[in-house]
C-alpha cells in the first residue's frame, strides 16, 4: 500500500509541476515576443522612421511618417463613429430598455464581436468603398469603428448596471428627472470603467490589419483629407515583412516595436491605473 | 465576453408611471428615443452585414451551388472557383493549433486556478491578458522571421528523419505551410483558452475540492478527477472560442502558410486558408464572379465562427451558472 501511495503522490507532484511549466511557458512567450521586438526593433528604429516618407521601392532609408499619421487618423475617426453608438446604445440597454429589446441588441452586439475581422473588411468594402468607387480613410475608420461598437456597448451596460441603486434613488428623490439622473449621477459614477473599456477597444483595433487591407488600402505618400487611401502601421508591417527587401524588413521590425509598445502601454495604463479596484472586461 | 464582474442584483432601471407627455417635457422620453436609435443601429448594422454578405455572394451560389465546397480548382483565368483547398487549409491549421494549444492552455489554467496563490495567479493573468492584446500582424512578423526559419532548419528535419515515411511528415519543407501556421495560431489562441478556462475552474465550488481531498485523494486527483470534470463543459466552451478565433484569423496565417491553393497530406507543404485568400486576392479580384466567390468564402467563415461562438457562449454560461448555483 505504501508503494502505491508513494506512486500517487509522485504522480500528483509531477502533474502539478507540469501545469506550472505550462503556465510558465505561456507567460514566457510574452516576454520572448517583447524581447525579440525590442532587440530587432530597437536596433533598426531611427529618427527618419518617424519623420520621413517611404522611399521608392529598392532604395534604402526612408520612414513611415505617413503611416503613423494615417493610423492616428483612422483611430480618431473610428472612435468618433464607434464610441457614441456603443456608449449610447449601452445607456439604453442599462437604463431604458425592456428585456426583449435588450436581449436582441445584446445578441447582435455579441454576434458582431465574434465576426472575423476580415469579414468586417468585406462589409466595409461593399458598404463604403463600392459606392464611392475608391479606397478611403473613412472606409477604414468605418471598419475599425464597427469593431469598437460591441466592446464599448457591452462594457458601458455592465458598468452602468454596477452603479448602486441608492445613488439612483438619491438623485431621483432630489427631484432630478431620469435623464438628469443618468447624465449627472450614474454615468459619472461609472466613467472610469467605461473609459477603461473604450481604451482597451481602441488598443485592440489599433493593431487590426485585415479590415484595412481593402478599405484604407495603403499609400506611399501623405494622404490628403479623409476621402483618399491612407497608409497605416499594421498594413505597413504586413507589406514590409512579406517583401523581399532587407531594408524593408528592418523597418517592419521598427514599426512592430512602435505598434506593440503603443498597444501594451494603453493596456497597462487602462488595466492598472484607470481600473484600480474594478473588474476589467477581457 | 464573459467577465468576472459580480452583478449587483439590486441595480436596475427604475420605471416611473407618469404620463408620456410629462416624460416628454422633462426630457426623459427624448433621451430614451435618442439612445434607442443608437441601440437599434447596432441591430441594423448586424442585419445589414449578414444581408450584404448574402446578396454579394449570389453569383457563385447560382453558378456552383454546393459544388463550390467540393471543387479543388481555383482558377481566376478560367473563371472557375472551388473552396475546397481553402476550407481544408483552414480546418487543418486550426486542428494543429488546437492540438498544441489545448493541453498547454488547460495545464496553465489549472495552475492559475488551483495551485497558484491568488496574487500570483492574478499577476500571471495580467500578463496573459497582455499576450491576448498583441496584434496578429506582430505574430505574423515573428512567424515569418523566427518560426519559418526554425521550421526549415530544426523542426522539419527532426520530424522528417524518423517519421518521413508517414504522409503527414513528407518533405520537402520550405518552412512555410500548414504546420507553421498551426504553431503560430496555437500561440495566438492560448491566452483565450487560459483566461476562460481559469474563470470556469475558479467558479467550481470549494466543497467539491474539499470533499475529494477528504476521501483521501491527492491534490492532483482532486483536480483532475473532480474539479476538471465539474468544469468540463466550460472548458469545452473555451476551446470552441479558441477554435472560432483560429478559423477567422487572417494576418498571421497569411504570412506563414505559403499561399498555395493545394490539398496535400503533408503538414509541411504550403497551403492556403479561407481568410488568407480573401486578404491576398480581394483587391486584385477582377470580374464579378471572382469577387463574389471571395465574398462567398467570407460568408462561410462568418457562418462557421457564428455557430462556434454561439456554442461556446452557451457552454460557458451553463458551467459558470452550475457553479454559482451550488454555492458561492
Question: What does this entry show, briefly?
Answer:
Chain A is mainly α and 282 residues long.
Question: Can you walk me through this structure?
Answer:
- The complex is a heterodimer of chains A (282) and B (328).
- Chain A is mainly α and 282 residues long.
- Helix content of chain A is 76%, strand content 0%.
- In chain A, α3 (65-96) runs parallel beside α6 and α9 (233-241) runs antiparallel to α10.
- Chain A is flat.
- Chain A starts with a helix and ends in an 8-residue tail after the last helix.
- Chain B contains 13 helices and 2 strands, in the order αααββαααααααααα.
- In chain B, β1 and β2 form a beta hairpin.
- Mean pLDDT of chain B is 87; it is low at 1-14.
- At the A-B interface, α1, α3, α4, α5 and α6 of A face α2, α4, α5, α6 and α7 of B.
Q: What is Rg of chain A?
A: 24 Å
Distance between the termini of chain B: 21 Å
Structural class by sheet pairing and helices of chain A: mainly alpha
Largest sheet of chain B: 2 strands, antiparallel
> What is the strand content of chain A?
under 5%
Uncertain segments of chain A are none
Order of helices and strands of chain A: HHHHHHHHHH
The dominant shape of chain A is flat
> In total, how many beta strands of chain B?
2
Average predicted local confidence, pLDDT of chain B:
87
Spatial order of strands in the largest sheet of chain B? 1-2
**Could you tell me how far the N terminus lies from the C terminus of chain A, measured between alpha carbons in angstroms?**
48 Å
Total of DSSP H or I helical runs spanning 4+ residues of chain A? 10
For this structure, the quaternary state is: heterodimer
Main beta sheet of chain A, described?
Answer: none
Poorly predicted runs of chain B: 1-14
